[in-house]
């Protein structure tokens, strides 16, 4: 994000300004009385460790600690497999590793190392070409549209592929999802081409409200599914790969080869169990209230006289969505921080990015803290924020 990195060597003064603003935003977040979400990104070590204070309610702490993936790790794996309705699941330290392993295994089974995905999918944007550089996979890019590919695009794609990877939701396009009917048609189209289907479900936990289906029914569409424990569930980290037992057993062998056979992982695993117990049941409430907040933001910007604004999607598909404004990125970033410093209300907690000249975009997430906000309170916060713009 442009606000946070400060890597423009041509403008060291601007870079330093953005670095200082990031520190101010972090301090403002910690002291703010009102935010739409309290997440791990800007939390303190003390706040994060508090997640394990009631760990004894989740697992018998008199049991031996895990060693190389047994004990409490196996309990978490069984819990995930049960939730997703798969034969088995394997815990991984990162989603990047989990998905490389999954698609490498599928490539060995299909005989085709080609993975079809969206150009804004996480491996294409955020993983330094890991599929190609580390795992010997080849990616081909489907539709450039800011949405998941359609069944027609799958059927008409000009070259073969062994696996179709679908990121649900597609974060960099605005946390967007297809309809249930569209998703089933896409899966059917891939199967017509004899391709396996893998879900990048880092945030799959958030999709049940949009699809109107339970997790196991959503996961059943795919041959394998990856889920994250820190996205959506607010755990310390970690991921799981779920699917057929034979695939999962092979994946565990590759997990060892990739360096993922960690000696002990109980803090991360306990935090994942906490997320499944405490956060997972609340996600539908977050999604429903995110739609209230999104509508209030849209109406608030219009009432405040902003010449143009965009909430995307207009009705959020998950509890996360984007806000676009016609201002310079640094201008809105400064107004966001000043609002928090001066009023104790942090409306925009995440960084702002500059997708083009005179444009700024940020992401909103609505979690437990956001449930306390009424639509009127969101509108009032928008008016106060806009008053701080030039």
TrEMBL record:
Some GO term, biological process aspect, for this entry: which one?
A: glycine biosynthetic process
Which Gene Ontology terms of cellular component type are present? cytosol
Q: Does the UniProt entry include the keyword 4Fe-4S?
A: no
Cofactor(s) needed for function = pyridoxal 5'-phosphate
Protein origin, superkingdom: Bacteria
Q: Which UniProt keywords apply?
A: Pyridoxal phosphate
UniProt-recorded Gene Ontology molecular function terms: L-allo-threonine aldolase activity
- The Aromatic amino acid beta-eliminating lyase/threonine aldolase domain extends over 71-298
| Family statement drawn from the similarity comment of this UniProt entry | Belongs to the threonine aldolase family.
What name does this protein carry? Answer: Threonine aldolase
Lineage at the top is: Bacteria, Bacillati, Actinomycetota, Actinomycetes, Kitasatosporales
């Amino acid at each position: 994000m442009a606000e946070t990195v400060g890597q423009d060597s041509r403008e060291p003064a601007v870079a330093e300004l953005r670095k200082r603003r990031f520190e101010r935003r972090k301090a403002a977040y910690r002291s703010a009385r009102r935010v739409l979400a309290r997440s791990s990104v800007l939390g303190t070590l003390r706040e994060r460790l508090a997640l394990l204070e009631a760990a004894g309610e989740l697992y018998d702490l008199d049991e031996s600690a895990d060693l190389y993936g047994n004990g409490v790790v196996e309990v978490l794996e069984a819990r995930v497999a049960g939730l997703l309705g798969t034969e088995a699941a394997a815990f991984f330290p990162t989603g990047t590793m989990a998905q490389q392993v999954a698609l490498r295994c599928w490539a060995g089974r299909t005989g085709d190392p080609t993975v079809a995905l969206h150009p804004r999918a996480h491996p294409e944007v955020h993983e330094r070409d890991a599929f190609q550089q580390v795992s010997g996979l080849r990616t081909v890019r489907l539709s450039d549209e800011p949405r998941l590919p359609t069944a027609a695009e799958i059927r008409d794609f000009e070259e073969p592929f062994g696996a179709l990877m679908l990121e649900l939701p597609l974060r960099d396009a605005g946390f967007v999802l297809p309809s249930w009917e569209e998703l089933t048609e896409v899966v059917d189209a891939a199967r017509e081409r004899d391709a396996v289907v893998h879900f990048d479900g880092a945030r799959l936990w958030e999709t049940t409200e949009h699809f109107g289906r339970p997790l196991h029914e959503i996961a059943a569409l795919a041959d394998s599914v990856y889920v994250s424990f820190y996205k959506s569930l607010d755990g310390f980290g970690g991921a799981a790969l779920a699917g057929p037992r034979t695939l999962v057993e092979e994946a565990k062998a590759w997990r060892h080869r990739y360096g993922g056979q960690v000696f002990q992982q109980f803090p991360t695993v306990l935090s994942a169990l906490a997320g499944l117990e405490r956060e997972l049941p609340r996600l539908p409430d977050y999604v429903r209230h995110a739609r209230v907040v999104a509508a209030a933001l849209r109406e608030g910007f219009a009432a405040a006289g902003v010449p143009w604004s965009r909430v995307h999607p207009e009705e959020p598909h998950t509890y996360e969505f984007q806000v676009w404004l016609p201002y310079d990125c640094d201008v809105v970033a400064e107004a966001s921080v000043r609002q928090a410093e001066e009023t104790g209300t942090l409306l925009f907690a995440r960084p702002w990015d500059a997708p083009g000249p005179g444009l700024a975009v940020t992401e909103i997430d609505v979690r437990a803290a956001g449930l306390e906000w009424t639509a009127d309170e969101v509108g009032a916060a928008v008016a106060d924020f806009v008053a701080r713009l030039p």
